[in-house]
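Example record used in the benchmark description.
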Amino acid sequence: MTLSAALDAFFGGLAGRLRQAAPADARSAAALADFAERVAALPGSAAAALEPQAPLPVCRHWPAALAGLDAGWARPLASLAPALRWTRNPNYRRAPPDPDFLANYGYAVIAGPADGPAAPIRCETLALGILLLGPGTHYPLHSHPAVELYVTLSGDGDWWRDDGPWQAVPPDRVIHHESLAPHATRAGASPLLAAYVWQGDLGRHARLVEGN
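Model output (structure tokens):
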């Protein structure tokens, strides 16, 4: 699968999942429908080649995360792998929440603004990518100005939103975080992989907040 075809397949699958989820979630229906149309409009044909990059430590969990994917996600993401440039929030690099966090956390931007991390697709109104957490990793309570949607892809994980409590969320579920809503994630026994989409203030990174 070419890079352009892999991107189109990933964007199409993500948009389709958001459209499917919208009617069942009255609270988030409008946001899901809007995000779906924006994701569907991203052009895989506009992908640009990126400079090679040494993998982050979390990338050792990538093969296991891919192995846990549904076939509809596995093929495009496996084809996208060479184009992914993994990075970490600079706020966490400066002050990790625990000694092992940075070795088990990372994200890759697939579409995003020119002043953000390297991405094969440039988009000034949307940031989209994938989050990878190693087994047992606790991504503690944090918030950011951008509105965010997650689609869980593989791994068993628990998710916290607003005042909680923790909720187990299996793969192929959609999670909506309003602007500045505190939220957290913890991976289970296998790596956790999720697609994310941001809209709104794309320039400010998430910051940890006191809580769980």
